[in-house]
Inverse folding.
């Protein structure tokens, strides 16, 4: 059956997500987790945490976690299918709305929508962090690293890579000392 | 777009070529560690002066309320402004090409050493830290927003729906976004 094709499955899954992905990738992690760990057998919990860390370590837009899911499912073709599916639907909307912008920006509802979405996006982002943490953490040490990283990012202006590197070093040290 | 006379020119009045569009976005992708937002504003407004601060904020703000990442949407709209839909494709390709190559490289190197116990332990630490990074980003955003109690209620409801109850995303958004827009409209009217 055509619908059994992994490429089509990737494209449909992430293409549909693209159309409703308010707040972008940082807000989407619970859904990306649900789709790739629970709904589809694409990643394990540990694999999800691993790939999320990898995608945060590389530079560039945040949604590349989706590209990596595609890569895990079907190699380079999967990467292209997932990436394009994640970009194209929302980009077509942006293209059309961008051209109508002059008409929209003077409408009374525009500032209302602009004020109304950040609280939703905020809830989505914190939920993303919590769901990702649940996938990544299995013991007290992991929990402590989550708190450490949350604190570094929330309270300082350090590059986020500092938090990831610190977590990696703590993990390495704990492994050497026999805690992992 | 109802273009004003110079909307296809940069803030400094010169035209913006396709090659410069590509290389500018490639620079943002290459150096955009931990998200592209900071470096994008620096390159577009300060360094290359493609857009004024005001114009850039407007395009980014519009990108924020549409589905898709706000940087991706900004990239599409900025590319379109200078070179039409082809410009959008050029700008998006510039933004994506190096990050994807680097991510694949990292993944291949990682996979080659994944069996090493040190690498495995470091990965567990990095995964936990990456999750904390997202929570920290959210807390920082929450502090900067200074939400009205009603809006805070919507943020908490969204968090509970997605983070605790694990409801499907599309259903959550379709219910909560219109309610929050209605509440915001009511708050402004009063």
């Amino acid at each position: 059956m055509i619908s059994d094709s992994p490429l089509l499955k990737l494209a449909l899954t992430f293409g549909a997500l693209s159309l409703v992905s308010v707040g972008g990738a940082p807000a989407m992690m619970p859904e990306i987790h649900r789709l790739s760990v629970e709904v589809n057998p694409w990643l394990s919990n540990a694999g999800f945490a691993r790939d999320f860390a990898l995608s945060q370590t590389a530079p560039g837009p945040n949604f590349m976690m989706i590209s990596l899911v595609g890569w895990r499912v079907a190699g380079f073709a999967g990467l292209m299918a997932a990436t394009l599916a994640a970009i194209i639907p929302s980009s077509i909307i942006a293209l059309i709305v961008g051209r109508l912008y002059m008409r929209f920006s003077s409408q009374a509802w525009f500032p209302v929508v602009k004020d109304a979405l950040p609280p939703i996006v905020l809830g989505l982002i914190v939920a993303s962090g919590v769901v990702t943490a649940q996938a990544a953490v299995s013991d007290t040490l992991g929990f402590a690293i989550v708190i450490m990283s949350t604190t570094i990012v929330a309270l300082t202006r350090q590059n986020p890579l500092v938090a990831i590197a610190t977590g990696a070093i703590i993990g390495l040290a704990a492994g050497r000392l026999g805690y992992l | 777009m109802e273009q004003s006379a110079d909307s296809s020119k940069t803030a400094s009045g010169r035209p913006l070529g396709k090659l410069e569009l590509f290389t500018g976005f490639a620079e943002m992708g290459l150096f955009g560690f931990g998200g592209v937002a900071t470096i994008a504003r620096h390159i577009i407004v300060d360094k290359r002066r493609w857009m004024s601060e005001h114009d850039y904020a407007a395009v980014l703000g519009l990108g924020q309320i549409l589905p898709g990442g706000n940087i991706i949407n900004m990239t599409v709209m900025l590319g379109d402004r200078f070179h039409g839909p082809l410009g959008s494709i050029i700008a998006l390709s510039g933004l994506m090409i190096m990050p994807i190559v680097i991510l694949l490289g990292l993944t291949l190197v990682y996979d080659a050493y994944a069996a090493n116990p040190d690498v495995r332990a470091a990965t567990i630490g990095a995964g936990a830290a990456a999750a904390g990074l997202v929570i920290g980003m959210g807390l920082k955003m929450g502090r900067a927003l200074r939400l009205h109690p009603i809006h805070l209620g919507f943020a908490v409801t969204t968090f509970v729906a997605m983070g605790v109850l694990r409801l499907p995303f599309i259903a959550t958004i379709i219910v909560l976004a219109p309610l929050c827009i209605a509440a915001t409209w009511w708050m402004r009217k009063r």
Q: What stands out?
A: The CA atoms of residues 12 and 140 of chain B lie 34 Å apart.
